[in-house]
UniProtKB/TrEMBL annotation, chain A:
Annotated region (Disordered), positions in chain: 1-43
Official protein name in the record: ABC transporter permease
Gene Ontology CC terms: plasma membrane
Similarity comment text for this entry: Belongs to the binding-protein-dependent transport system permease family.
Coiled-coil positions: none
Membrane topology: Multi-pass membrane protein
Predominant subcellular localization, coarse grouping: membrane
Compartments (UniProt record): Cell membrane; Membrane
Chain intervals with Basic and acidic residues compositional bias: 14-43
Keywords per UniProt: Membrane, Transmembrane, Transmembrane helix, Transport
Source organism of this protein record: Nonomuraea glycinis
Automatic annotation (TrEMBL), chain B:
ABC transporter domain sequence ranges: 4-237
Entry protein name: ABC transporter ATP-binding protein
Pfam families in UniProt: ABC_tran, TOBE_2
Residues in the signal sequence: none
GO CC annotation, single: ATP-binding cassette (ABC) transporter complex, substrate-binding subunit-containing
Coiled coil: none
UniProt keyword Cytoplasm present: no
SUPFAM superfamilies registered for this protein in UniProt: MOP-like, P-loop containing nucleoside triphosphate hydrolases
Species in which this protein is naturally found: Nonomuraea glycinis
PANTHER family listed in its UniProt record: ABC TRANSPORTER ATP-BINDING PROTEIN, MALTODEXTRIN IMPORT ATP-BINDING PROTEIN MSMX
Gene3D superfamilies: 2.40.50.100, Nucleic acid-binding proteins (2.40.50.140), P-loop containing nucleotide triphosphate hydrolases (3.40.50.300)
C-alpha cells in the first residue's frame, strides 16, 4: 500500500512545473467551453422549451382518476370531523394523532404484522419445497399443476365458508377430527389460539400454491446443463438447491414475498367470514377494525386517518422488503 | 488414468425405434486429445453424456480401464465436462466456483487451495479469484467453467462440449492453444466436441468423425484430409469439400462417360461407382491433351491466395483449386487430371478402393 502511494508522489515532485502549466491550460479550455455554451443558450432560447411534458399528460390524468382523486377524498375526510353531510369541522391532524395512539388500533397493527410474518415464514418455504418436489417433465406436470393451483381458483369468501364449516368441532371434518381423533380440545369460536390457527391454516392452504407456482416457473427456467454440471461437480441435493436453484429463485421469490405480504397484511374477507374478528379481538386484523370504524360506526374522520396510516405502513414495509431483496447479493 | 472403452454402446431416445447413437465399440486411449467432429444432431452430445454418465445408454457397457462404470452415476465416475455455455454458481466468487468440486469431495483445505491456485494460474484467472463469477465477461466465465473441470487432478477425462461457442473469435485462438498447452501439462484425456472442422483439425491429435449416430472415420487430421474413408468425411472436412463424380466400373476400368479415368486398385465387381477427389488434387490440362474427363468451365471464384475453378463433367459439378495466377474463360473446355493416389472409389458412400493410372500411365 505504502509503495503504491509513494510512487505518484515521487513523480509529482519532479514534474511540478510541467503539471502547473497543464492545469492552467485546462482551466483556460474549460472557461472557453463555458462561454461557448452560454452563447448557444442565449442565441436560441426556443431550443429548450418544455412542451415534451405534455406527453406525460395522459398518464397524469389516468393516475389522477384511478389513484389521486379517490385518495384525496380520504385525505379530505381525515382532516375533518363530520357530524352530518352539512355539518363538518376542520380538525387538522387531530384524527391522525388519536388513531395512532388508540390502543385498539395499535393492538390490531401488531396482530396483523404478526400474522403477516407467520404467513411469510410458513408459505415461502412450503411453496419452494412444493415447487422443488414437483416433476420437471412428463405427464404428471399438468396433473400436479392443476392440483396445486386448485385453491387459487376459489373465491375468497367461499374459502372462508369452506373453512368456517370444515373447522367446526361438531359437524366440520377438520374440527371434528382434531377433537375426536387427535383428542385435542379445539373450538375456534371460543378459543383465541384455535381461531388464530384456523385463520392461519386457511391462508396457508389458500396461498401457498401461488408461491409454489411462482417458484416452479423460476425453477423451470434453469437450463439443464446447470444440473448436469452440479452432478459432475459432485454436488449433493442440498448443495444443488442452495447454489443453483435458490439463487435463481431470487426474482420470483421477491415477487412472491411482496405479494404475500401485501395480501396477508390487508386480509379481510376470510377472517370476516370465519371468525368475524373474534373471539374477542383475537383475529381482529387492521382491515376488520377499519371497516368496523368506517362502515359500522360511520366515523369517517378517524376511518380516513386510519386508512392513510394503513396505506403508509404497507408502502413502507414493501419498500423495505424490495430494497433489501434486490440489493443483497449484488 | 485409464482407457475409456465403449462396448456396443448405443442410445435411443424413443425406445429403440431410431438410434441417436448406433451401437458402437470404441476405445478412447488414455492421455490423447480427441476431437469429436460432426454436424448438429449427429449424436456428439449424446455420446459425451453417455461417457460422463449424465445419460445411461440403451444398450452396451462402458469401461474405465478394467472397471465397469455402466451403472455408476456421474459423481462416481471422475469425469469433468464443460458445456457449450458457461455454467457457473453465479453468487459464488471465482475462487469458490473453482473450489466447489473439491469441497464437495471433502478434500483437505490446503489441497483445495493449492489446486485452485494452480488452475487459476494456468487459466490466467489469478487476478479475478475474489470477484463474483457472474461479473466476468463470457469468455472468462467459460474459463471458470473449464477451470472447474481441471481442478480435480484425478479425472479420467475432460469432456468439452463445444466450449468455445460463446467466446469471441480472437479469444478462440488463444483459448484453443491454451487448451492444447493444458493437455500437454496435465496429460488428461481430452474429448472435444465441435462441428467446426478448423477447430477439430487444429486442436486434436486424433479426429473422430461422427455422422448419423455412427463413427465414420477416425484418424489424424492429415489422414482424414488425404484419404477419407467415407464420402461424408470428404464433404465435411475441407473447404470446399470433396468432388464426387458418378462413374462406371467395367472389368476393373473406371470410366466417366466416354473418358477413361484409370483402374481400380482392388478387385471389384463391375457396376456404378463414385469417384471422390478433393479440389486440391484436380489438375486442369489443356483441351485435347490427353485422354481424361472433359470438363466445361462454368466460373472462377477468386479467393485471393488461390482460385476455385468451377466446371462440369457430364453435367456434374467439379471444383478445382488452382493458383491465383491462372485464368479460365467460362465455357472453355479442358481435360481434367486427378493427382495420383488422391482419387478414391466409393460405393454406398464407403470407400472401396483407390483410382490408379492405367498401365504405362496411358490414361492419366
Amino acid at each position: 500500500m505504502s509503495e503504491r502511494t509513494a510512487a505518484p508522489a515521487g513523480q509529482a515532485d519532479g514534474r511540478t512545473d510541467d503539471q502547473a502549466d497543464r492545469r492552467a491550460d485546462r482551466r483556460a479550455e474549460r472557461r472557453a467551453e463555458r462561454q461557448a455554451e452560454e452563447g448557444e443558450r442565449r442565441a436560441d432560447p426556443r431550443r429548450r422549451n418544455n412542451r415534451a411534458w405534455l406527453l406525460v399528460l395522459p398518464v397524469v390524468v389516468s393516475v389522477a382518476f384511478t389513484a389521486v382523486i379517490p385518495l384525496m377524498t380520504v385525505v379530505n375526510f381525515s382532516v375533518q370531523d363530520i357530524f352530518s353531510p352539512g355539518d363538518r369541522l376542520f380538525v387538522g391532524l387531530e384524527w391522525f394523532r388519536s388513531v395512532s395512539r388508540d390502543p385498539e388500533v395499535r393492538a390490531a397493527f401488531v396482530r396483523t404484522l404478526l400474522f403477516s410474518a407467520q404467513v411469510l415464514l410458513l408459505e415461502i418455504p412450503l411453496g419452494v419445497l412444493l415447487a422443488v418436489s414437483m416433476p420437471r417433465r412428463g405427464v404428471w406436470v399438468s396433473v400436479t399443476l392443476v392440483l396445486v393451483a386448485l385453491p387459487l381458483l376459489i373465491p375468497w369468501n367461499v374459502v372462508g365458508t369452506i373453512w368456517q364449516i370444515f373447522a367446526r368441532p361438531d359437524i366440520g371434518l377438520g374440527g371434528w377430527a382434531v377433537n375426536n381423533v387427535l383428542g385435542l380440545e379445539f373450538n375456534y369460536t371460543l378459543d383465541a389460539t384455535d381461531a388464530w390457527i384456523t385463520v392461519l391454516a386457511m391462508d396457508v392452504w389458500h396461498w401457498t400454491p401461488l408461491v409454489a407456482l411462482l417458484a416452479y416457473a423460476g425453477l423451470r427456467s434453469i437450463p439443464d446443463p446447470y444440473f448436469q454440471a452440479a452432478q459432475i461437480d459432485g454436488a449433493s441435493a442440498w448443495a444443488t438447491f442452495r447454489h443453483i436453484q435458490l439463487p435463481r429463485l431470487r426474482g420470483v421469490l421477491t415477487i412472491a414475498i411482496l405479494l404475500r405480504f401485501m395480501d396477508s397484511f390487508m386480509i379481510y374477507t376470510e377472517p370476516f367470514v370465519v371468525t368475524g374478528g373474534g373471539p374477542g379481538n383475537a383475529t381482529s386484523f387492521l382491515s376488520i377494525l377499519l371497516s368496523k370504524i368506517a362502515v359500522g360506526q360511520f366515523d369517517l374522520g378517524p376511518a380516513g386517518a386510519f386508512s392513510l396510516l394503513y396505506f403508509l405502513a404497507v408502502q413502507i414495509v414493501c419498500y423495505v422488503f424490495f430494497t433489501v431483496l434486490t440489493r443483497t447479493g449484488r | 488414468m485409464a482407457d475409456i472403452r465403449l462396448e456396443g454402446v448405443g442410445h435411443s431416445y424413443d425406445g429403440g425405434r431410431t438410434w441417436a447413437l448406433r451401437p458402437m465399440t470404441w476405445t478412447w486411449r488414455d492421455g490423447r486429445a480427441y476431437a469429436l467432429l460432426g454436424p448438429s444432431g449427429c449424436g456428439k452430445s449424446t455420446l459425451l453424456n453417455i461417457i460422463s454418465g449424465l445419460l445411461s445408454p440403451t444398450v452396451g457397457r462402458i469401461w474405465f480401464g478394467d472397471r465397469e462404470v455402466t451403472g455408476v452415476p456421474t459423481a462416481g465416475r471422475d469425469i469433468a465436462q464443460v458445456f457449450q455455455f458457461p455454467v457457473l454458481y453465479e453468487e459464488m466468487s471465482v475462487y469458490d466456483n473453482l473450489a466447489f468440486p473439491l469441497r464437495n469431495r471433502r478434500r483437505p483445505k490446503a489441497e483445495v487451495d493449492r489446486r485452485v491456485r494452480e488452475v487459476s494460474r494456468l487459466l490466467g484467472l489469478e487476478e479475478h479469484l475474489r470477484r463474483r463469477s457472474r461479473r466476468l465477461d463470457p469468455g472468462r466465465q467459460q474459463l471458470v467453467s473449464l477451470g472447474r473441470g481441471l481442478v480435480r487432478a484425478d479425472v479420467a477425462a475432460v469432456l468439452l462440449d463445444e466450449p468455445l461457442t460463446v467466446v469471441d473469435p480472437a479469444m478462440k485462438w488463444t483459448l484453443r492453444s491454451e487448451l492444447k498447452q493444458i493437455h500437454r501439462d496435465t496429460g488428461h484425456t481430452l474429448i472435444y466436441v465441435t462441428h467446426d472442422q478448423t477447430e477439430a483439425l487444429t486442436f486434436a491429435e486424433e479426429v473422430v468423425v461422427l455422422n448419423d449416430g455412427a463413427i465414420v472415420q477416425a484418424g489424424e487430421p492429415s489422414e482424414l484430409f488425404l484419404s477419407p474413408a467415407h464420402e461424408f468425411v470428404g464433404h465435411f472436412i475441407g473447404s470446399p469439400g470433396m468432388n464426387v463424380l458418378p462413374a462406371e466400373l467395367l472389368d476393373g476400368v473406371v470410366r466417366v462417360g466416354d473418358a477413361t479415368l484409370g483402374r481400380a486398385s482392388v478387385e471389384l465387381p463391375s457396376g456404378p461407382v463414385r469417384v471422390g477427389v478433393r479440389p486440391e488434387f484436380v489438375r486442369i490440362g489443356p483441351a485435347g491433351a490427353a485422354s481424361g474427363p472433359v470438363a466445361r468451365v462454368t466460373g472462377v471464384d477468386r479467393m485471393g491466395a488461390y482460385n476455385l475453378v468451377h466446371a462440369e463433367v457430364n453435367g456434374h459439378p467439379v471444383i478445382a483449386r488452382t493458383d491465383a495466377a491462372t485464368t479460365f474463360d467460362a465455357g472453355a473446355t479442358r481435360v481434367l487430371r486427378f493427382a495420383e493416389g488422391r482419387a478414391f472409389l466409393f460405393r454406398d458412400a464407403v470407400r472401396c478402393g483407390a483410382l490408379e493410372p492405367l498401365d504405362g500411365r496411358a490414361g492419366a
